[in-house]
Amino acid sequence: MSAITTIRPALVGKLNERQVLRVIQLRGGLSRAEVARESGLSAPTVSKAVASLIKAGLLEETVATELARGRPAPKLRLATTSAQVLGVTIDVVHCEVVSAGLDGALRDDAITVPTPATYPELLDALEGAAKTLMARPGVATLGLGVSLPGLVDYRKGCGVLSPNVAITDNHCPAADLTERLGIECTVLQESHALCLAERHYGLAKGLDDFALLDVGAGVGLGIMSGGRLLKGRSGLAGEIGHFTAVPVGGRRCGCGNTGCLETVASDSALAWLASQKLGRAVNVDEVIDLAKSGAVDLRAELREVAGFVAVGVAAVINLFNPATVFIHTPLFEIDEALFDTVVGRARERALPPSFADCTVVRAKGSKRQGAVAGIIQHLTDSVAPELV
Amino acid sequence: MSAITTIRPALVGKLNERQVLRVIQLRGGLSRAEVARESGLSAPTVSKAVASLIKAGLLEETVATELARGRPAPKLRLATTSAQVLGVTIDVVHCEVVSAGLDGALRDDAITVPTPATYPELLDALEGAAKTLMARPGVATLGLGVSLPGLVDYRKGCGVLSPNVAITDNHCPAADLTERLGIECTVLQESHALCLAERHYGLAKGLDDFALLDVGAGVGLGIMSGGRLLKGRSGLAGEIGHFTAVPVGGRRCGCGNTGCLETVASDSALAWLASQKLGRAVNVDEVIDLAKSGAVDLRAELREVAGFVAVGVAAVINLFNPATVFIHTPLFEIDEALFDTVVGRARERALPPSFADCTVVRAKGSKRQGAVAGIIQHLTDSVAPELV
DNA sequence: GGGGTTTACTAAAGCCTCTTTACAAACAGT
DNA sequence: ACTGTTTGTAAAGAGGCTTTAGTAAACCCC
C-alpha cells in the first residue's frame, strides 16, 4: 500500500504550492493574478504560495514589460537566472554534464568527458564537471539528474545491469554525487528520462498517457500513465526489448536468450543484416552512413527492421493504450519515409480501437533534456505529493 | 494534465476519511483507538471521520466481544449487515448478479440468467435480478459493478469490441443501469476486474505493483502499478493477447492478424492443437476434459502452450517489473505440474533482475469477486482523491 | 496636470480542520 | 466499593483558505 503521508492542515498549503508551480510550468510567465484565475485558487493563497516558492528558489519575479490597462503585474517564471539544475548523461564513449534553468532550458555550457574505465574515475570526472558548472556566482544549483543506460533500480538508486556501459552496475551514482556535491541528486533510466523529456519539452506537454519507444542499439521504453512514470516495484519497468519476437531460430541476444525483439528491431539488427549481406562486420554508425549515402542498397533490410519496430509499436499501443507514441531512433535519419512505413505496419498489427485512440509521432527530446527533466520532476515532487 | 481538484481545508477531512477506510479495509474489525494508532491520526480526527463514514453507510459498528482491560470499544467494520453492493458478470453463455458486503464477502444469493440475444433484453434481465437482490429490507445497496469481456472504454463506460460477447459492444451498461436502478454503477474490463479481485481478496492485499495474466479463450492482462490500475487513455490498456508471437506462418487470430500470442498461448490454442492431432474439431471444454482424463495424450501440446504462456509471463515481468504475477487459467487444472513448467520457462526468458524481484503464483480470485471489487474501489475513490 | 478607470496585490474577518490537553465513561480485578 | 486501564469526546490553540475591503500603480481623457 502507498506510503502513509501525515495529513495536516499544512498539507493543503503545500498542495497549493504545487498547483501554482504546475500552472507556471505549463503556461510560464504569468502574474499572480493570472495564476489565480488559471488555477482556480484565490488571490491571497496564490500570493502566499508564490512567496514560499520564491523563498525556496523555484520561482523568480521579473519586471512587467507588456503595457496593460491597470496596475502592472510582476511576471513569475521558473527560476533561471537565480537557480539552475544539472543533468548528466552517461554513454558508451562519453559522459556529459549540462546545466539548465528550472524551466528546463539547456545552457550551452555542456562539459563532455570520455567515459572513464572505472567507477571512481567516473565519479571524479562528474564531480569536477559539476563543480565547474556550480561555480557560477549568484546562481544556486538545486539538484542534479543522472540518466543511466540499462536497468536501474530506483529503490536503491543503483545501476543494475547494463550490457554496454557496465561501469555503473551495482553502484549508486545519485547517493555518491549527493555526498560529494551536497545537492539533491537523482537517477533515471535512459528511456524513462527521454519520456520525461518529451513531457517537459516536446509535444507531450500536459499529456498524461503516452509512451516513448527508444530504438537504438537496443529497444527501450518509457511509459507515462495517468501522469506518472511507470516504474514497477523497483523501477525496472519498460523492458520491451527482450520480448520473444522470433520463437524459433532467432539470433542470440545480449541477454543470453534468442529471438528477442532487440535482435530484429534495432540499429544493431540493421547492422547485423548489413554484415550478413556484405560478408564483413559492420557496426551501427557505419551502417547508418552506408544506408544514408546509398552506397549499399539496404532497402529490404530496412523494411524488415521497420516491420519488427512496428510490432513493438503495436504492442505498446495495445498494452498501454497511450494517447501518443513517440518514437526515438536514428533509423529515421536514413529514410524519412521509414516512419510512415512503421506507422502503417503498426496500424495493421494493433487493435483498431487502441490504434484509433493514438497518434504516433517522432520524438523530439534528447537524453540531456531527459536528465534535466528528471531532476526537475524530482524537485517538483518534493514540494508536495500529487493528488489523483 | 490531471484534473484540477479544488484544494480547500475541507479536503484534509476527506483525505483522512479515506485513510481511515483504508486501514479498516486492510485490517478489519478495529476500534476507533486502534485505527488511530494504526493510521497515525489523532483520536478526535478518527472519531470524526468514522462518524462521517457511518453516516455515508460505508462503515458499521458492532458491539465489543473481546474482553479487554479498560473500557470496551465498539469495533468498526465495513458495512455488511446494513449495506451491500452488487456485482454483475457477463459471459458467453450466462450472466450472473451477486451481492456482497462492503468488505467484499460474497453472499450466496447469486442469480444466474442465460445471456440474452439483444442488449435491451440483457438490461431487462439484469435490472430484474438486481432489483430482487436490492429488495432486502434494512439493507442499502450502494452500487453495482459490471465485469465486461473484451475491450471496454472507461471514459465513456462502454463496451467497445468483444469478439465473443458482442452484445455489449457500443453500449454503456453502467449508465443504463444507473438510470434504471438509481444507484452508482461502474464497468470494468474482465481482466482488470480479476486484478482488483486479487487485491481485495487474494494474496495481493496491500500490494502496489502486481500483474494478473488471465489465460482463457484469449489472453487478458490487468496491471496494478503504484497502487493504481493501469488504464491508459481510455481504459483499453492490458491487451497483451495480440502481440505478434509468431512472425511468420502463424495461425489467424480473431483480431484479423496472424500469429498473435492468443493463437498459441490459450485454451483455444490447446483446443486447436488437439483438433489437429485428432483430425476433428475439439472445443475448449472438451479438450480440458480429454486432457484431464488422459483419454488423449496431449503432453506435447500442453508443453507447447505452456512455453508460449511463459513468453507472456516473461514479457509481463520485463515490462511491468511487478512484485507478483498472478496467473489465472483453467489449464492448470489439467496438470498441476504445468504451473512449475511455466514458471521455469519464464525464468529463462525474463531478465534476471526483474525475475528475481517477482513471485509467480496461481490466482485465487473470480470474476464475480472482481465485479464487486470494482464497485467497492469506485466507492472508495469517491470518498476522496488519493495522495501519491 | 488631475480625476476617473482599471487591474494587481494585501490585510482582516470568518470558517474549517487538525493536534494536544483535559475530562468523562465503562469495565476488570481486588 | 475502589483503583487502574483503556476508550471516546469536548475545548483550546494553530494553520490554511475564502470573501470582503482596502491600498497601490499604472493608463485615459479632458
From TrEMBL, chains A, B:
CDD domains: HTH_ARSR. It holds the Pfam family ROK. Gene3D superfamilies: 3.30.420.40, Winged helix-like DNA-binding domain superfamily/Winged helix DNA-binding domain. Belongs to the ROK (NagC/XylR) family. This is ROK family transcriptional regulator. It comes from Gemmata algarum. The lineage of its organism: Bacteria, Pseudomonadati, Planctomycetota, Planctomycetia, Gemmatales.
